Amino acid sequence: MAVRRVVPNIPSGSVQESRAFYGLLGFEEVMNHGWIMTLASPSSPAAQISVMTSDRTAPVDPDMSVEVDDVDAAYAIMRESGAEILHPIQDEDWGVRRFFVRDPSGRVVNVLAHRARPGQ
């Protein structure tokens, strides 16, 4: 299993203002679902931050997102380790498969993989 990227999730009631603020640092919007917006560096696209009001399909809001190449393997490893699963693995409408787990410091980690599009 390999980590593809790590993205901090910033809770905010001011998503649009946050877009303008981080835009001053060179970030550009690459995804916006209304409740979560991801900004990335055009020169280094894996350098990203997400700003969110609250997670629409999970019982808690994640502190960070970790994209892996095999989310099912990551889920199995976390379950076998006895880690606290806060949100079971599931496919989301926006094209990711994910689960939430609590880390030893109490942070909520959204572990995800993008699903392949038909024809890929």
UniProtKB/TrEMBL annotation:
Keywords: Dioxygenase, Lyase, Oxidoreductase
Keyword DNA-binding: no
Domain of life: Bacteria
Domain VOC: 2-114
Gene3D superfamilies to which the protein is assigned, alphabetical: 2,3-Dihydroxybiphenyl 1,2-Dioxygenase, domain 1
InterPro entries: Glyas_Bleomycin-R_OHBP_Dase, Glyas_Fos-R_dOase_dom, VOC_core
SUPFAM superfamilies, A to Z: Glyoxalase/Bleomycin resistance protein/Dihydroxybiphenyl dioxygenase
Pfam family, one: Glyoxalase
GO terms of molecular function: dioxygenase activity; lyase activity
The name this protein goes by in its record: Catechol 2,3-dioxygenase-like lactoylglutathione lyase family enzyme
